[in-house]
């Protein structure tokens, strides 16, 4: 894949630099040159009347060629922080872009429900959901091979 593609990672983990973010960034680096948006760093800005940082993050997402949207599973779904960020886009606003979801959960049941909930919202935004990573803690020992598989599908 050409590194000229603009790949944006949106990490919905409230903790910047999390495993979720690290895995998503590693996947994005296989797809192009990534820009990483850590929503945990932007959290204080979300409910400000006007936030230059949030506007800039949404602009980066809107201009991306490919997105990698990552979240840990919180109570069987994706994080509220990610939901608030995605709710800032209108229905179909991100049409024409591929998105690789990355989900990390403690159990297979939570991976499935979190992935399903996230895919519904991503599709509502007009994104084409393509293979990503749906991981349990046990999968972390083979994450490099799983990233390589997803990246190979893109080539």
From TrEMBL:
Keywords from the named record: Flavoprotein, FMN, Oxidoreductase
InterPro entries xrefs: Flavoprotein-like_sf, FMN_Rdtase-like_dom, NAD(P)H-dep_FMN_reductase
Keyword Flavoprotein assigned: yes
Keyword Flavoprotein: yes
GO function terms (MF aspect): oxidoreductase activity
Domain (NADPH-dependent FMN reductase-like) ranges: 7-133
PANTHER family per UniProt: FMN REDUCTASE (NADPH)
Record-given protein name: FMN reductase
Origin species: Naumannella halotolerans
Organism classification: Bacteria, Bacillati, Actinomycetota, Actinomycetes, Propionibacteriales
